[in-house]
Every structure is written in C-alpha cells, then in structure tokens.
Amino acid sequence: MSKGKLQKFAMIASYDHVLEPTNEEAMSADGIDMKGKWRKDFFKNDKPITLELACGGGEYSVAMAELYPERNFLGIDIKGNRIWKGATKAIELGLDNVGFLRTRIDFIANCFEENEIDEIWITFPDPQQSKNRRRNRLTNKIFLTRYKHILKDGGKMRLKSDSDFFYEFTREVIAEEGLETAFECDDIYNNYTSKNPDSQLSKELEIKTFYEKMWLSDGKTIKYIEYFLDNLKVEVKV
C-alpha cells in the first residue's frame, strides 16, 4: 500500500464525521453500535437522513449538504481513499450535516434501524453488466429488500446513471415488482434540466461528479429515475 493511501486512512480514522466499523461489527446480529442512533449520536440533530450509496469521493453528498443545510447526508463506500476526498472537502467547507460510513453495502441493513432513513441516492454505480454479476447490481431485489428495511414509508429511491444497461435493468426490476415510479428521464440535461432550469430537481441533477463530466464529454446521456419501495414484497432475508 502506498504511503499516500496510508496517510489518507490515518486521516479519516481521526475524523469525527467518518465511521469505519469492522466487518465483524457490520455482520453481527445486533448490527453496529450506531444503528438506530444516527440522528442523536452522529449528526446530533433530528434532521432527515439521505444516504448516497457507492458514493466514491462523496461529491454528491457534499454538494447536497451545501444545497440542503436542513438535511443530513451520509455517503457510503468501502474505499477509504475515496471517502477521504469527500470527508476532507466537508471539513474545508465547514459542513456539519454530512458524514461518511466506510462499509460494504451488503451490510447496510445492519447499519441502520428500520425506517431510520428518509431517502436513498445511487449515483453512477458499477453496472455489473455480465450475467454472473446480477447479484452485485445495486438495484436488484436482494438489495432493494435491504433498502426497504431501513427506508421510511414513502421514502424515495433515486438513481442517476450514465449506463443504458443499468437504467433499463432498474426499470425492469421496478416493473417486475410493481413499484411506483415518481419520475424518470433517459436524458436529463436535454429533456429536463434545460427545460426546467429553476426547479429544485434540476438543481440536484445539475450536480456533476468528476466522472460524470468525463462521460458527458464523451457524448454519453445521463439517466435518472426515482421510485418507491412501499409495494415491494419481501421474500428474502435482508
């Protein structure tokens, strides 16, 4: 491991707004110590909590925390050197309503209490396109079951992706499970934000990550869909 990575890991270990449970803690029957206490003990307020899954450098979480000081935002990723970027940026900006959780998304149901989360964003996930990677796609039913456990009734799932494959896969899962879609667009910048520049959704969608800017320069279109899990029939363990 490089010296630079070791330094970043040491820095995030010292950050109060980064939590790094061990795999053993995250896999335990009782879950991590912060489970059910995120508002009271981590954010120290009663504001709604939005998760960003596979947050990478946390660009979306940080930008949304700036946009909505009345909400809490928590980025989740397993890569410590990625989390370091967002966590350090949050300190530089003086934000107290954004934090980071370093863990695998597989363990998410052990990290939060039932109905503890108000909204979930998935921003530019790995599409896991090969057939034998279906179980790793973050919008398959196994993962949706975990999200439903922690998401409050009426809480939204929100996906932003450059991948036609992943967008269509998600739409297929939504249709198969009979879930309600609140809004969808297969080209947000040409078909929505440019036509609705003053809407709150446009302000959220106009947040662009480093990689999104590259994909746009390559001519890719960005897809977006938001939907609810209330009708999801839970038939598998979380």
Characterise this structure.
- This protein has helices spanning 3-14, 23-27, 38-43, 59-67, 80-93, 141-150, 164-177, 188-193, 200-205, 210-217, and strands spanning 18-19, 49-53, 72-77, 98-102, 117-123, 151-161, 181-185, 223-228.
- An eight-stranded mixed β-sheet has the order 1-4-3-2-5-6-8-7, with helices on both faces.
- It has a single domain (3-228), classed as Rossmann fold, CATH 3.40.50.
- Helix 1 crosses helix 5.
- It contains ten helices and eight strands.
- The protein is of the alpha/beta class.
Under CATH, the topology can be stated as: Rossmann fold
Question: Number of DSSP strands?
Answer: 8
Question: What's the gyration radius in Å?
Answer: 17 Å
Low-confidence stretches: none
Element-level helix/strand string: HEHHEHEHEEHEHEHHHE
Indicate the structural class: alpha/beta
Q: How far is the N terminus from the C terminus? A: 34 Å
Q: How are the strands of the largest sheet arranged?
A: 1-4-3-2-5-6-8-7
Distinct helical segment count: 10
CATH architecture title: 3-Layer(aba) Sandwich
Number of structural units classed as domains: 1
Q: Please, what is the average pLDDT? A: 95
Give the proportion of residues in helices: 25-40%
The percentage of residues in β strands lies in: 15-25%
Net shape: globular
The CATH homologous superfamily is called Vaccinia Virus protein VP39
The CATH class turns out to be Alpha Beta
